[in-house]
C-alpha cells in the first residue's frame, strides 16, 4: 500500500471535474445550507477518495486540464507516494509563500521575476523577517507581514491532536454559530439569504450581479468575506479533517492508481 499527503489528495480532487460531479451523499450528518454545488462536490469528492479510492477513481474522477495557478512561490514538482507510513518526507511540514495579489495580476513575467527575487532574499525569512518585509517593500512597493503570506503545508500526521469527538463538536458549533449569525440582524439575513452560497463574491472586484439586498456592493462583499472566513472556511477544514480521521487517517491507496496519475515513488522509502 502507498501513502500520500493531504495536500496531494486535495490536488487530485481539484484536477477532476468538480462542477459536474454527481455524488448523492451528505456532507455531514446535520444538513448544511450554505455550501454551493462546487463546494459540496469538493467535500464529497475528498470524502469518497478517502473512503473508497477505487470507487472514486472508477466512478467520480474525471480529469480536467487545470490552469496553472501562480499563487505560490514554490511550484510543486512531480508529486510522490510513499510506501512507509513513517517516511520522514511524508511527515515533513514544509512552508510555501503566497505571491502577493498585485504581482499575480501583472501576469506570468512578473510572477517569474518575483520568484527569482524571492529566492535571493529567502534566507532573511529565517534570520530577520523585518528586513525581509523592508526589502519586499523597497523592491515591490508591497507592505505585508510574513505571517500573512506564509502557507504551512501539513504533513501526513498533522492532526493537532484532534479526536473525532472534538472535531464533531467543533463542526456542530460552527454550523450553529453560522445559523445564529444569519438571524443576528435584518442586514445579515438580507445579504445571506441571497448570497451565503456565493460567499466567494466577497473577494471579487467586479460589481455584484442582481444585488437586490438594499445594501451597497461594498457592504455585501465585506459581510460575505467575514462570513466566509469565520464560518465556511474553518468548517470546510474541519470537515476534511473529520473525514480523514474517520475514514482513512493514513490516506492509504493503491500504488497502481497513483502511478497512473503521474505520482513517482518516493526515493527515500519506496524502492
Ligand atoms: Zn517516502
Can you tell me the residue ranges where pLDDT is under 50 for at least 5 consecutive residues?
A: none
CA-based gyration radius: 21 Å
Shape: globular
Report the sheet with the most strands, covering strand number, pairing sense and barrel closure: 2 strands, antiparallel
Helix content: 40-55%
Q: State the helix count.
A: 13
For the secondary structure, the number of strands is 6
List of distinct ligands in this structure: zinc ion
Number of domains: 2
Task: Provide an overview of this structure.
By secondary structure, the protein is mainly α. Helices cover 52% and strands 6% of the residues. The chain has two domains: 17-62 and 159-249, no CATH class; 94-153, no CATH class. The strands form three sheets. A two-stranded antiparallel ribbon has the order 1-5. A two-stranded parallel sheet has the order 2-6. Strands 3-4 form a two-stranded antiparallel sheet. Helix 2 (37-51) packs parallel to helix 12 (217-247). The radius of gyration is 21 Å and the shape is globular. The two termini are 13 Å apart. The site of zinc ion has 9 residues, from helix 4.
